[in-house]
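User: quick one - fold this with 5-O-phosphono-beta-D-ribofuranosylamine bound?
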Amino acid sequence: MVKKLALFASGTGSNVRRIVAWFEDNPRVEIALVVCNRPDAPVVSFAMEAGIPVRLLQKEDLYGDDRLSRELQAMGVDLVVLAGFLWLIPDHLIAAFPGRILNLHPSLLPKYGGKGMYGRHVHEAVLAAGDSESGITIHEVNARYDEGAILFQAHCPVLPGDTPESLAARIHELEHRYLPLLIEKRLVLLS
Ligand code: GRF
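Assistant: Sure. Structure tokens for the protein plus 5-O-phosphono-beta-D-ribofuranosylamine:
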């Protein structure tokens, strides 16, 4: 059976691109949908050019009722991956996909997680704290920001002279290397 992925992303979408490229030649995995809450996000134009259906979300679509969960279930989505999606995932979605929603976070959780801790804010906090390392976390999603069970972490050094940008670039490399692998492993577990 073909496994179907729904990717939630609202930014540049570099991770979405890597995931799409990773599974391009894999007939057992389909990127069924990209879900985005910003119509002008680069990830939207990328998905459209790649021929991937895009679902644009407004707040009421996610929080008003459980329609999105039902849509994803009706499509036969097996796994939901949040790759740069900042809105809190509502209970109906968690209940519809128990243990089947993963989030990517650009720090070593539980450090530097929670509401407002995304992108540049995370890297600025790591640098301000003087940490000697940072990294990425891939975790299951529960009803609280960045608190679900941790599935995977990868570390990288924080180097003298690092800026939020240079640290972000190092973190992105880790994300691009490991997120597709983790998704593939997770899909095997689901089969
Ligand atoms: C990633 O750094 C991820 O950790 C965070 O959002 C960022 C998305 O980056 N949750 P991109 O849009 O995939 O480049």
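One thing worth noting: Residues 24 and 42 are 20 Å apart (CA to CA).
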